[in-house]
């Protein structure tokens, strides 16, 4: 039987077993539940626990944040060269190496995000300069965002936001988001005129849109 954390609660009437995505067990029980009842409950759940833990182990997960991690960078792959030390956090690109020095993982992740935000701004500006004349509109402002679930947006005030995580996507998908948001400057909705406009500047937009949909949980950062 794997280890579990036991949580007794005066308000609880029944026993309840939870397994976190990391595979840790938590057993919630009434305050006065005797050990024999807890043991019997766990025994009855044995098969389910085993199946759930196996499923969690086999589920694909984001690769560990560690030295040597492959970091997609548009159409390239960079390698994380990571070392921890007391010095101020730094990120430097040397060829295909991304050399990160930081105090700890949180510090390294923050430094990497800052670096990715910087390159994302440069790349977004360059691609907007390319696509704006094709669409016939230009944004008032470009913002680099970092939401977990949104690749880009376009405000009524004409600000285009681009997610820095898109720097981990192939260039074709980065361009899709740029063209998509620029077309919102003409049509601020997702109705037929919007898609007609996008098809005009990017005839293969549908394929790119589908690829972008599948990209979500597979990025290392
Ligand atoms: Zn849209």
Highlighted features:
221 residues, alpha/beta, Zincin-like, 2 domains, 4-stranded mixed β-sheet, 3-stranded mixed β-sheet, 5 helices, 24% strand, binds zinc ion
CATH topology of the largest domain: Zincin-like
The share of residues in helices is 40-55%
Largest sheet: 4 strands, mixed
- Helices, by number, come to 5
| Count of domains | 2
Major sheet strand order: 4-5-7-6
Unreliable residue runs: none
> What is the CATH C-level name of the largest domain?
Alpha Beta
Counted beta strands = 10
Task: Give structural notes.
With 221 residues, the protein is α/β, with parallel strands linked by helices. It folds into two domains: 4-58, no CATH class; 106-218, 2-Layer Sandwich (Zincin-like). The chain is 41% helix and 24% strand. It has five helices and ten strands, in the order E-E-E-H-E-E-E-E-H-E-E-E-H-H-H. It has helices spanning 35-58, 105-135, 171-184, 192-201, 205-215; strands spanning 4-9, 16-19, 25-30, 70-73, 76-84, 90-94, 97-102, 141-145, 152-154, 159-163. The strands form three sheets. It has a four-stranded mixed sheet, with helices on one face. A three-stranded mixed sheet has the order 1-3-2, with helices on one face. Strands 8-10-9 form a three-stranded mixed sheet, with helices on one face. Strand 9 (152-154) and strand 10 form a beta hairpin. Helix 2 packs across helix 3 (171-184) and helix 3 packs across helix 4 (192-201). The model has no long low-confidence stretch (mean pLDDT 93). It binds zinc ion. Residues 180, 184, 190 line the site of zinc ion (ZN).
